[in-house]
Design goal:
Helices cover 48% and strands 14% of the residues. It is an alpha/beta fold. It has three domains: 117 residues, Phosphohistidine domain (Glucose Oxidase, domain 1); 109 residues, Enzyme I, Chain A, domain 2, CATH 1.10.274; 339 residues, TIM Barrel (Alpha-Beta Barrel). Strands 1-8-7-3-4-5-6-2 form an eight-stranded mixed beta sheet. Strands 10-11-12-13-14-15-16-17 form an eight-stranded parallel beta barrel, surrounded by four helices. Helix 15 crosses helix 16. The structure holds phosphoenolpyruvate (PEP) and magnesium ion (MG).
Length: 606
C-alpha cells in the first residue's frame, strides 16, 4: 500500500473490509508480540515441572478464551466458532503435545519449545497456495501469543475496557480482540496487517463498523488522540485532517449514505430490464454467517457457496454431521430461494490434515477441485452425503468445480448416484431430483459445453479461473496481473459460446466470477443472455439497480459492436463510453472503485 503524501503522512491506502465513513480520535492498542527473551536448557529434574508450567498456561488460555466467548456481543455470536477454533488449537497435538514432547525430550524451556511447534505448523501452512487459507495461520499465532503471555505472566488490555468514542489503531487484532470490542464506543478500526478474509474483517462487517486493514505502517504515523478519517469504502485513512478535509468528508459521507440507502431500499425489487426481462441476482458466500447479509442486500438466493472453509479451519477433516448442519442452516435461512453448493475446490497440497501432502510444481494445473475429490472418494462422498441430506431442508443445488470434460462429469455423477443409493438404503430424506450443475471455468469445458449440457441442469461460468486458464495468466502471480483481462475478446466469445450451448439444451446459464459484480460488465452479461449473476453480497444492490436501468434490446445491439473489437483495451474503452452516463453517479460516490476491482479481488481470493 502506498503513502500518497511524502513528508507529513496524511493519507494511507489499505484494504477496505467493512464499509462506512467515520471521523474520530485514535486509540492506539498495543498488540506487539511477546518477545521470547530466554531460551534455556532445563535441568533434568525440572523438565516435568516445565511441562506442567506449559500445561497451566494452556489451561489459563482456555479459560480466557471461554470468558471472551461468554461475553461476546449479540451481533458476533454467529462468529463464536472462531473462538472454538482457538480452543481446538490449544488441544491440537502439533501445538500442545508436540510442545510437551519437545520440553521433555530436548529439555528446553516451554517458550522455546512452543516457538518450535509454531514454526513447524508455519512450515506446513507455507506450502499452501490459497491466500485465504494461508491467512488462517494467524489463528495459530494468536493462540501461541496468548499462551506466551500467560507463561510470561503478562496481562493484556482488553478492548472491552475502552469507554470512549474512539477509532482503534493496532498492528493487528485477533478474533478475541474484535469479539470483546465495546460496540457502543468503538467507531471503527484500522490495522497495519490483515486481509479481506481475516476474521477481524468479517467481524467488522457483522458489527457494521467501518474498518480498513493492510495499512502496513499506520501505527507508526498515528498517536494517541490523533484525529482520523476512516473511509471503509475506499480503504483510505486520513491522519490529522484539516478543517476543510473534515467538512468535505462529512458532506461526502452524507451524500454517500443517502445514495446507498436509496439503492439498498430498492435492492429487494427484482432485477428487470426496462422491457421486463428478469435476471436473478444471487450471492457468493464462503461462510454460513454471510447468508443474512446476502439476504439483507437483496440476494435472491446463494449462487455460489464456496465450501473450502470447513476443511481448512481445523487440522482434521470435517465430519459429515458438521457439514450437514452447516448446509442445512444455509438452505433453511435462504429458503424459499435456492442455494448452489459447490463441492470442494481444493488442491491436494492445500490440506494439512489426514491426507498426505503432495507438493506440486504447478498446483493450478494439478490435483485440484473435482480431480482431487475423484481421487479422495471417501472425502468426496462424505461431502455429497451432507449436501444431499441438507437438500431435504430447502432448495439445494449441487455444482462441481473445474470440470474439464464429459468423462469427469460422468464419474462425478456416478459417485453421486452411489451416495444416493446409500442414503436410500439408510432411509435418509433428500431431494432425489436435486439440480446438478457444473462450473465452466476450464477452456476445454467451453469447447464441449454442448456435450456437457446434455448431462446437467445448469452451468455457472467461473470467469476468475476461465480468464486464468484461457489467457494462461496465473491469477495469483502479481507479475502477470496486468494481463488478467476479463474483457479479452476470447473471454467474451467463450461466455457467448457457453450461453448458446446452454440455451440450445434448454438449461440455465449463470455467471459467478468477479465479472458478475463489476458494474462495467453488467450490460454485456445481460446482452449475452446470462440468466443469473452471482456476486459479493455488498455489490448486489448496485448491480440490481444497473439492470433496472438497462434495455435488453440495446444491450444486445451494443454487444454486437463490442464482439467485433479485437483487443481488451478497445473493449474496455467502448464499454466505458457506453456506460458513462449510467455509471456517473456511482462513480461520484466512489462506489465504482469499491466494486470494480475484479483483477485485484480475483488475485486476493486466489
Ligand atoms: C471462478 O473461478 O470464477 C469462481 C467463481 O470460483 P473461485 O474464484 O472460487 O475459483
Ligand atoms: Mg474457480
Amino acid at each position: 500500500m502506498k503513502e500518497t503524501h511524502k513528508e507529513t503522512v496524511k493519507r494511507l491506502k489499505g484494504i477496505a473490509v467493512s464499509p462506512g465513513v467515520v471521523i474520530g480520535k485514535a486509540r492506539l492498542v498495543d498488540r506487539s508480540r511477546v518477545k521470547i527473551l530466554y531460551q534455556y536448557l532445563v535441568d533434568e529434574r525440572q523438565v516435568s515441572r516445565e511441562a506442567d508450567r506449559f500445561k497451566e498456561a494452556i489451561s489459563a488460555a482456555r479459560e480466557q478464551i471461554i470468558a471472551v466467548k461468554n461475553k461476546m456481543p449479540e451481533q458476533l455470536r454467529k462468529h463464536s466458532f472462531i473462538l472454538d477454533t482457538h480452543t481446538m488449537i490449544l488441544d491440537d497435538s502439533m501445538f500442545c503435545n508436540a510442545t510437551i514432547q519437545t520440553i521433555l525430550s530436548e529439555k528446553i524451556n516451554a517458550e522455546w519449545a512452543l516457538k518450535k511447534s509454531v514454526q513447524n505448523i508455519e512450515k506446513l501452512f507455507a506450502q499452501i497456495d490459497d491466500r485465504y487459507i494461508k491467512e488462517r495461520i494467524v489463528d495459530v499465532e494468536y493462540v501461541a501469543e496468548r499462551v506466551l503471555r500467560n507463561l510470561a505472566g503478562k496481562e493484556q488490555e482488553s478492548l472491552s475496557e475502552i469507554n470512549e468514542r474512539v477509532i482503534i489503531v493496532a498492528h493487528e487484532l485477533s478474533p478475541a480482540d474484535t469479539s470483546s470490542i465495546n460496540i457502543g464506543k468503538v467507531m471503527g478500526f484500522i490495522t497495519d496487517v490483515g486481509g479481506r478474509t481475516s476474521h477481524a474483517a468479517i467481524m467488522a462487517q457483522s458489527l457494521k463498523i467501518p474498518a480498513v486493514v493492510g495499512l502496513e505502517t499506520v501505527t507508526h504515523h498515528v498517536q494517541e488522540g490523533t484525529l482520523l478519517i476512516v473511509d471503509g469504502y475506499a480503504g483510505e485513512v486520513i491522519i490529522a485532517p484539516d478543517d476543510e478535509q473534515i467538512i468535505l468528508f462529512q458532506e461526502k459521507q452524507l451524500q454517500r449514505e443517502r445514495y446507498e440507502s436509496s439503492i439498498i431500499r430498492l435492492s429487494h425489487l427484482p432485477a428487470e430490464t426496462v422491457e421486463g426481462h428478469r435476471v436473478a441476482v444471487r450471492a457468493n458466500i464462503e461462510l454460513l454467517e454471510e447468508v443474512v447479509a446476502a439476504k439483507d442486500h437483496g440476494a435472491e438466493g446463494i449462487g455460489l457457496y464456496r465450501t473450502e472453509y470447513h476443511y481448512l479451519r481445523s487440522a482434521n477433516l470435517p465430519a459429515e454431521e458438521e457439514l450437514f448442519e452447516d448446509y442445512k442452516q444455509v438452505a433453511e435461512i435462504i429458503s424459499p430461494s435456492p442455494v448452489t453448493i459447490r463441492t470442494l475446490d481444493l488442491g491436494g497440497d492445500r490440506i494439512s490434515s489426514e491426507i498426505a501432502l503432495t507438493k506440486e510444481a504447478n498446483p493450478a494445473l494439478g490435483l485440484r477441485a473435482i480431480r482431487f475429490c475423484l481421487k479422495e472418494v471417501g472425502l468426496f462422498k462424505s461431502q455429497l452425503r451432507a449436501i444431499l441430506r441438507a437438500s431435504a431442508f430447502g432448495r439445494v443445488q449441487l455444482m462441481f468445480p473445474m470440470i474439464s470434460g464429459v468423462q469427469e462429469l460422468l464419474d462425478s455423477k456416478a459417485i453421486l448416484e452411489e451416495v444416493m443409493n446409500d442414503l436410500d438404503r439408510e432411509g435418509h430424506e433428500y431431494d432425489r431430483h436435486i439440480r446438478v450443475g457444473v462450473m465452466v471455468e476450464v477452456p476445454s469445458a467451453v469447447a464441449v459445453a454442448d456435450l456437457l449440457a446434455r448431462h446437467v441442469d445448469f452451468f455457472s461460468i467461473g470467469t476468475n479461473d476461465l480468464v486464468q486458464y484461457a489467457l494462461a495468466i496465473d491469477r495469483v502471480n502479481e507479475h502477470v496481473a496486468y494481463m488478467y483481462q476479463p474483457f479479452h475478446p476470447a473471454i467474451l466469445r467463450m461466455i457467448r459460446q457457453v450461453v448458446e450451448a446452454g440455451n440450445k439444451a434448454g438449461i440455465d446459464v449463470a455467471l459467478c466470477g468477479e465479472m458478475a459484480g463489476d458494474p462495467l460488465c453488467t450490460f454485456i452479461l445481460v446482452g449475452l443472455g446470462i440468466e443469473e449473476l452471482s456476486l459479493n453480497p455488498l455489490g448486489i444492490p448496485i448491480i440490481k439497480k444497473i439492470i433496472r436501468t438497462l434495455s435488453l434490446e440495446e444491450s444486445r445491439k451494443d454487444l454486437e459492436e463490442i464482439l467485433d473489437l479485437d483487443t481488451a483495451t478497445k473493449v474496455r474503452d467502448m464499454i466505458k463510453a457506453k456506460m458513462r452516463p449510467l455509471l456517473k453517479d456511482l462513480d461520484q460516490q466512489g462506489l465504482i472503485t469499491s466494486y470494480n476491482n475484479q483483477e485485484k479481488r480475483a488475485l486476493r481470493h486466489g
